[in-house]
Amino acid sequence: MTTTGIVCALAIEADCLNKVIASGLPGGHDIRIGVSGPGAEAARQCAEALLEEGVQALLSWGVAAGLSPDLSAGSLLLPTDVYAEHSVLPVNAAWHTRVSNMLASSGLDFAVGAMAHTPGILATPLAKQTLVSTGNAVAADMESAAVAAVAFNAGLPFLVVRAVVDPLARTLPPWIASALDEDGGLRPSSVCKGLLHHPADIGVLPGLAWEFHKARQSLCAAAKVLVDGRVFLMAGEVAAG
After folding, report:
1. pTM
2. How far is residue 115's CA from residue 147's CA, in Å, rounded to a whole number?
């Protein structure tokens, strides 16, 4: 059985995949989805748990911060490399080509380039710009480098599919990270507390909600195309080849 393991930081990121595959997958194929929680260590543990379940390839899936002014909220990302702290880990070229062709043939636009690693949320344009000089990085996330390292050490194909949630110019409220729950939603009590200390931030929230909606919309569109086209399920063929 061909099995692809997909690591998502948040349940809301995995939701699109779960809905698409709920009706079942072609015989002899399987997708295992792990929801790790945010951060590199959580992603590493999730990826290793998927390996123990026998997956034959690993994919990092979810949202990311945009580092390029050309990317807006909802821009789909198919990186060619992941910049870890001390190394550059390429995605599997054959798998990347198959996914690229499938997305392009469906009419979905996407950006390539590299994904940079960040240990935490990039709350300001200045914080994002510090990573722009990292090779050709067009976006950043907290989990892909850890998943890539697990795949590399295990000799398995690896891929990243992400969507921009906050563009380069977006400034996030300083309290937003602590207000997120384990599913990626905002805790009402934490939001109230944050706004109590930073009342001007109330004007930012509708924009943040819209940007997350656009990112999720892109992920759901990609999930349907890739699962229907069995591109996720080709990972085992890539590994065998």
Report:
1. 0.88
2. 12
On the question of pLDDT at 222 being above 70, the answer is yes
First-residue to last-residue Cα distance in the chain: 15
* CATH fourth-level superfamily of 2-240: Nucleoside phosphorylase domain (3.40.50.1580)
Q: How far apart are CA 149 and CA 178, in angstroms?
A: 27
3-state class (DSSP) for residue 80? coil
* Predicted confidence (pLDDT) at residue 177 exceeds the cutoff of 60: yes
Q: What is the mean pLDDT of residues 90-100?
A: 94
C-alpha closest to that of 145 among 80, 78, 85, 225: 85
Match 């507390």 to its residue by tokens.
193
Q: What is the mean pLDDT of residues 158-180?
A: 83
CA distance 71 to 110: 10
**How far apart are alpha carbons 65 and 30 in whole angstroms?**
30
Q: How far apart are CA 146 and CA 84, in angstroms?
A: 8
pLDDT at 109: 94
Query: Under DSSP, is residue 84 helix (H, G, I), strand (E, B) or coil?
Result: coil
How far is 166 from 183, CA to CA, in rounded Å?
A: 18
Sign of CA dihedral 213, 146, 84, 79: negative
Q: DSSP of 133-158, one letter per residue?
A: TSTTEEEEESSHHHHHHHHHHHT--E
Residue of 163, 136, 179, 134 whose CA lies nearest to 64: 163
Does residue 141 carry a pLDDT above 50? yes
- Say whether pLDDT at 241 is over 50: no
